[in-house]
Design brief:
Chain A: Its main location: nucleus. The complex is a heterotrimer. Chain B has seven helices and five strands. By secondary structure, chain B is mainly alpha-helical. Chain C has two domains: 51 residues, no CATH class; 102 residues, Methane Monooxygenase Hydroxylase, Chain G, domain 1. The chains are: A mainly alpha, B mainly alpha, C mainly alpha.
Chain lengths: 196, 203, 201
């Protein structure tokens, strides 16, 4: 029935156990095709002669208009909710998304992400005075300027703003400025230990 | 707001410390000046400063006036016997207790203080839950939650505020009902809706 | 934003899903060009006397036509009203209608003469179940899910929120806050990736 594919698309998104399921190109195309057929009917009806007895298309047109609107709503809701997730991911993963997630994005979603990322970076550069303000820092109120961290995986060298270089090898422990390692902790490279 | 953020606000509250060092320089901050410090002479600073100095063994923290066993036990009794929420000695009583009454606290009877304060909290939260229930059942349009602190509201929000809001939203007419897929349909529906409610009003 | 509003707007998945629930609709006269709606229809004409269960969004486009009538979905009819009035706590709303409250609100908008009855039913049911919900949510951390599975969708979201507020508080009481943790999505992603790896090998 009309709208069945559209609701499948929505259910698929709602039930997915994946963080970001693949963009369902096929289903979107089928829904658009359904819209074309619905629209064709409406156009044909509009150019035919209305007759209350033999050619009463009013209910048919109303129902199909509703179906068109419904399909449109489902498509928009699908895309909108995916964009909300992408937006949130920008804040959790940073500007580089894992390849598994990137593979599930549609081409336009990739473009959208790049633009969002750019807009955000631009905004952060232009607020808070000359040096900008990194909004990704202090996602929760900070307690200390320096914190102790343990490295959970091989990361390699990390150069701090001060020029000091740390070698982040697995299981090594370091005492570092909170502001420079927060994102690595949030990405799971480092672990914050001995906090109080 | 979440618990961490409310604790952050509690850290802005002031507390008296007895410094173990002398520094005549005053630190000028946006939120106010800190110092000068003279060893052994009490002075008032925000809790976050007190905690930082304390960690470096540079001061002793003095309990706020209200953080006293007799007083709090009396408060607990008062809270138990009152139908309403009684005013708390501090808007961040729970947060401050949590910040100052750690295991190695300078404050005497930290354990018992902590327990009493937790008891007060429990009484209040239970009371809030019960009154949410009565309120929902009674069908009133507003409830007095005077003297509830931020942390309490944060904890009670889902069951108290969200539930009440859901109830409210169910009973009010929806103006821009989104479930209607078109603006045209929402027009005709709100018409039929208002035509239904008018005769009821005139009865 | 309030929970209800967050769940009910043009782009919201819950709202799209609740408006997909079905409403019984009867066509007293034959209607042209709607044959697709009825699998047993001959040609494109919907025969007089046909009764169908159509999704809410479609019903709203047709219910005001001449000769078209709608009925209440069973969960809002007298029989269920009586059951819910007797003891709302024991009813499995999830099975009866996943979006019991939100769909009920929608139905009330197109069944003008039942409007108030439906709203009263929804509110009474919510109120009657609220105490159980509170009890469950507060002590839920280690309990079985039997009760949770009987809740309607918005009730589940309410109790999830309540449980996480409770958990948040007890974590805070037990340890100092201030630890920076791995971001939630990163954590979820790592879990998924590692589970798919074990699956593949």
């Amino acid at each position: 029935m009309w709208g069945d594919k559209a609701i499948e698309l929505i259910k698929e998104l709602e039930r997915s156990s994946e963080l970001f399921p693949p963009f369902d190109d096929d289903k979107v195309r089928l829904i658009l095709e359904e819209c074309r057929v619905l629209n064709q009917f409406i156009e044909d009806a509009m150019s035919s002669t209305f007759d209350p007895e033999t050619n009463n298309y009013l209910a048919g047109v109303k129902a199909r208009t509703a179906a068109l609107e419904r399909n449109k709503r489902c498509l928009l809701a699908y895309q909108w909710n995916r964009l909300q997730t992408l937006k949130k991911m920008r804040w959790e993963f940073g500007s580089i998304l894992p390849p598994e997630i990137k593979a599930n994005m549609s081409e336009t979603e990739v473009q959208w992400c790049t633009k969002y990322s750019k807009a955000l970076a631009n905004y952060m550069k232009n607020i808070g005075g000359r040096n900008g303000l990194n909004l990704m820092l202090d996602m929760q109120p900070p307690k200390d300027l320096y914190i102790e961290v343990r490295c959970l995986k091989e990361y390699g060298k990390l150069e701090l703003d001060s020029g000091e270089v740390f070698n982040l090898s697995e299981n090594s422990q370091h005492y570092m400025p909170r502001s420079q390692v927060e994102n690595l902790i949030r990405l799971g490279v480092l672990e914050h230990i001995n906090w109080s | 707001m979440n618990t961490e953020e409310i604790e952050f606000l509690a850290e802005q509250e002031e507390v008296t410390i007895i410094p173990k060092f002398t520094d005549s320089r005053v630190v000028h901050l946006i939120s106010g000046d800190i110092g000068p410090f003279r060893a052994g002479i009490p002075c008032v600073v925000p809790i976050w400063v007190a905690k930082t100095l304390r960690k470096k063994h540079k001061c002793k923290i003095v309990a706020p006036e209200w953080m006293e066993l007799d007083l709090l036990e009396q408060k607990l009794e008062e809270e138990k016997s009152s139908r309403f929420f009684t005013p708390m000695p501090s808007d961040h009583y729970m947060g401050i207790a949590h910040l100052l009454l750690s295991d190695d606290s300078d404050i005497e009877h930290a354990d018992r203080l902590r327990l009493t304060i937790k008891n007060i909290w429990d009484v209040r939260v239970a009371k809030a839950r019960a009154s949410a229930d009565t309120f929902l059942k009674g069908g009133g349009r507003h409830a007095g939650i005077d003297h509830l602190t931020q942390l309490e509201i944060c904890n009670l929000r889902p069951l108290l505020l969200d539930a009440l809001d859901t109830k409210h939203q169910l009973s009010v007419p929806m103006e821009n009902m989104s479930a209607l897929n078109t603006s045209a349909a929402s027009g005709s529906l709100s018409e039929s809706f208002s035509s239904a409610s008018t005769p009821r009003r005139s009865q | 934003m309030s929970l209800f509003r967050k769940r009910n707007h043009y782009f919201s998945l819950t709202d799209v899903l609740s408006s997909q629930e079905r409403v019984p609709i009867t066509f007293q006269v034959a209607v042209g060009y709607l044959g697709e709606l009825d699998a047993s229809a001959e040609g494109n004409i919907l025969a007089a006397g046909t009764t169908l269960e159509l999704p809410y969004w479609l019903v709203t486009s047709l219910y005001q036509e001449d000769g078209v009538g709608i009925d209440l979905p069973k969960q809002y009819k007298q029989a269920w009203r009586d059951i819910l009035a007797a003891d709302a706590k024991v009813v499995n709303l999830q099975r009866l209608c996943k979006y019991f409250y939100e769909f009920g609100k929608l139905v009330s908008l197109i069944r003008v003469r039942d409007h108030q009855d439906i709203i009263d039913l929804l509110i009474q049911t919510l109120v009657d179940r609220h105490r159980e919900l509170t009890n469950w949510a507060v002590h839920a951390i280690k309990q079985e899910n039997e009760f949770f599975e009987k809740l309607d969708d918005i009730e589940q979201e309410l109790s999830r929120r309540a449980t996480s507020a409770e958990l948040n508080l007890s974590n805070w009481l037990q340890s100092d806050c201030g630890q920076i943790r791995k971001a939630e999505m990163v954590q979820a992603h790592d879990r998924l990736v590692s589970s798919s790896r074990t699956f593949n090998t």
